[in-house]
Amino acid sequence: MVTEVAERVAAARRDGVAAITLDRGLAAAGIDALPWLLAGAKTLSYAVNMAALRHAATQGAGDVIFVSSDGYILEGPRSTVVIATAVDGRTALLTPPPWYPILRGTTQQALFEVARDKGYDCDYRALTPADLVAAQGVWLVSSMTLAARVHTLDGRPLPSAPMAAEFAGLVDAAIASDR
Fold first, then answer.
1. Per-residue model confidence as pLDDT tens for the chain (179 residues)
2. Which residues contact 121 (CB under 8 A, 6 or more apart)?
3. 135 secondary structure, DSSP code
4. Can you say how many angstroms the Cα of residue 25 is from the centroid of all Cα atoms in its chain?
5. Which regions span the lipid bilayer (predicted)?
6. Contact (CB, 8 A) for 167 and 115
7. In which element (H, E) is residue 44 found?
8. Beta strand segments in 45-144, E
């Protein structure tokens, strides 16, 4: 059964989102020594994710970007973080490494396949909150929302994303090619 896209999702796609960073309470490295924490299983540990989103709403934000206890970007409660930035004079799309305590995003993986075919450099990198502020665009990507541009982070407006329209097109192409 196909249902209408929820207004929250439509608004995030259209207008972008304000997000806050929250400490996830886990280090970026070494979590494999603690398998009982189920760090990469959003379906099993969803209570923390939903509580984080409720907390974000009380702060006037619509979404969350989790940060590791050692200061690295992890993921959103229901999304993968992707940034656009310049690397050696070329636009690159970057996302946190899959060996962090995160769930690999299928939308992000499909996006990288399409973006590479279009000539973009795509890579996994350790990112910090400062990297998000300095980026040429920050998006939360997922199979439901597709791409929500982060326009405000921790109450501070981010610069406009020069490739916002192209990024949305890349995500649309990724979704179409992944069927």
1. 667 878 888 888 888 999 999 999 888 886 666 666 666 555 556 788 899 999 999 999 999 999 999 999 999 999 999 999 998 888 999 999 998 888 889 999 999 999 999 999 999 999 999 999 999 999 999 988 899 999 999 999 999 999 999 999 999 999 888 55
2. 87, 90, 91, 92, 93
3. S
4. 18
5. none
6. no
7. none
8. 63-67, 80-87, 90-95, 121-124, 137-142
**What is the token pair recorded at 140?**
């939360």
Longest C-alpha distance within the chain, in Å? 46
Give 30's DSSP letter. S
Q: Is 1 helix (H, G, I), strand (E, B) or coil?
A: coil
Helix axes 106-117, 164-177, angle to 10 degrees: 110
Residue among 116, 112, 98, 107 nearest 179 (CA):
107
Instruction: Give every CB contact of residue 126 below 8 A, 6+ residues apart in sequence.
Output: 28, 72, 96, 97
- Residue 80 backbone dihedrals phi, psi, to 5 degrees: -110, 140
Q: Which two tokens stand for residue 27?
A: 């280090």
Alpha carbon distance 50, 130 (integer Å): 25
Domains plus CATH for the chain?
7-177 (3.20.10.10)
